[in-house]
């Protein structure tokens, strides 16, 4: 369940979005402070991690919904998602052949489409690399 976008205080809630600075690690530079997640009207809002999950799901759905099945990513949709949402993390997959290979490694049932859970394997891998957790 994605809560409606908190109005106004998005900037200090998630990663800093100042485009001018080193953009590389900004997704993971979200404030880790532990203030209660209350918005200006005193209502409980999503935590940083909840918002991150919400973003992943929302983006997956946005790309998966472009053609064919709305709940799975075709190769074309997957390619667009990589280029648009993971440009730094997935820069080794900029050629169509590399995308195809990556997709094949994620597509567990080999139906040419990625479900969210198949796609999730990639996120887990990228997150592990980001955190230096190894494989
Ligand atoms: Ca689709
Ligand atoms: Ca599949």
Automatic annotation (TrEMBL):
Q: A single GO molecular function, which one? A: calcium-dependent protein binding
What UniProt keywords are attached to this protein's entry? Calcium, Metal-binding
Pinpoint the EF-hand domain residues: 94-129
Give a Pfam family name. S_100
Renumbered residue ranges of the record's region Disordered: 1-31
| Any GO CC annotation of this UniProt entry | extracellular space
PROSITE patterns assigned = EF_HAND_1, EF_HAND_2
Membrane-crossing residues?
A: none
> Which InterPro entries does the record associate with it?
EF-hand-dom_pair (IPR011992), EF_Hand_1_Ca_BS (IPR018247), EF_hand_dom (IPR002048), S-100_dom (IPR034325), S100_Ca-bd_sub (IPR013787)
Ranges of Basic and acidic residues composition bias in the record: 13-25
Q: Which CDD domains match?
A: S-100
What is this protein's record name? EF-hand domain-containing protein
User: What organism, scientifically named, is this protein from?
Assistant: Pleuronectes platessa (European plaice)
